[in-house]
Amino acid sequence: MNWQWTYIFLYLLAAVWIIFAVGSHLFRNGAPFLKTLYPEKDLDRFINRMLLTGYYLLNLGFAIYNLVQNESLENWVDLIQLWAENIGLLCLILGSIHYSNLIVLYAISNSSLSSQNPQS
Predict the structure, then answer these.
(1) Residues 102 and 29: beta-carbon distance below 8 Å
(2) Distance from C-alpha of 3 to C-alpha of 18, rounded to nearest angstrom
(3) pLDDT of residue 3
(4) CB neighbours of 89 closer than 8 A, spacing ≥ 6?
(5) Average pLDDT of span 64-89
(6) What residues contact 30, with CB distance under 8 A and at least 6 apart?
(7) Which single residue of 5, 44, 50, 63 has CA 20 to 30 Å from 29?
């Protein structure tokens, strides 16, 4: 049996599902957070859509890039170990990007609020 094709199928299936499930969850549940940071009309929705587009492009690109590997897969154990390693790495990167975005958005909103309301 060709383990490489099995690995590719299972990896892409899991990676695409994780990316789209997390992306739609963040899009829905991030909207109220963005609304509080950016109360201007439609700015929060624009930012949310741009974040979702960037999220999909970045993570799908990484998932496809990460698909290329030079290890030979001899059996199911090798396949599961490589799959778990790469899906785990993808999840760690997704979480890191999410928290980085939160920090950046919070910092930007704080700097815009402080420039709009300077304290004398």
Answers:
(1) no
(2) 22
(3) 86
(4) 66
(5) 86
(6) 48, 51
(7) 63
Q: What totals of helices (H) and strands (E) does the chain contain, helices first?
A: 3, 0
Q: pLDDT tens digits, residue range 34-51?
A: 888 878 878 889 989 999
Spatial separation of the C-alpha atoms in residues 97 and 56, rounded to whole Å = 12
CA distance 111 to 109: 5
Residue pointed to by tokens 């890191």: 96
Residue 92 has pLDDT above 90, yes or no: yes
Whole-Å CA distances, 24 to 3, 29, 31, 58: 31, 8, 11, 15
DSSP 41-62: TTHHHHHHHHHHHHHHHHHHHH
Query: Which residue's structure tokens are 């170990």?
Result: 81
Length of the chain as a residue count: 120
